[in-house]
Request: fold
Amino acid sequence: QEYTALKLKVKEWSDTAKSIVSKALPENATVYFVPATLRPETMYGQTCCFVGPKIQYGIYKASDTEYYFITDRAARNMAFQGIFSKWAEFPKVADLKGSDVIGTLVNAPLSVHREGVRILPMGTVKDTKGTGVVTSVPSDSPDDYATVLDLAKKAEYYGIKKEWAELEILPIIETPSYGNLTAKTLVERLKINGPNDTKLAEAKDLAYKEGFYKGVMCHGEFKGRSVEEAKPLVRQQLIDSSDAFNYAEPDGEVISRSG
Ligand code: ZZB
Reply:
């Protein structure tokens, strides 16, 4: 699986993270949350970024000044893809749980929300896939749409500010079957009632297919072009500006065998 890994620069840490990070990192260090995505063309629509609140993460030294917030598993994989400055080395400078970083403000490249987006909890993030960090595009990802609705509804329970989950959801891609807010349309049509609804798998499948084969960009530099055309162009633009890099998931690792 070939992902685009996006670099979301930390602008302001949550209080818990701040006390951990200030002891562990040099003052001039730049830290990025690094979500892995298959949909670089949707990055205009990022409204927040998810971590699994119970997942264990690390901050890893990628170069002299740059550090990545990812899972241990992802750091190990990256170290063997020439992403870190020394081959096979992935020095960890801090240990954090997802819950420690909730509320952190990050800059999301290309997002219409230039003021930054918040790190928020998502119960369904898998620590066995990608980097364990998931950028949220509720216009085009049904999982993300269901999660931000739930977060806003139960903000107090999740220990977040309601407005962090309520950034405006702008149309990015137009499709013939689902209009310009594919995820909202699918969540409503399939009567999905929350982030753990099993119908989300079907919604995701439908959204991927319709978006890729019939989607047309209705926002950004490639407005009017098909998603199929725009995808590699947006990806390359993000890589050229050093806001992203390619990250490959080794085969087989996510399959757990029994018996
Ligand atoms: C932004 C985005 C925008 C995504 C969209 C999807 C969609 P897949 O297809 O199963 O391989 N993701 C990445 N890592 C994780 C993880 N560890 N746990 C849970 N979800 C994860 O999944 C790849 C997609 O799943 C990634 O692409 C990421 O969300 C999420 F409009 O990034 B995506 C119809 C989907 N649309």
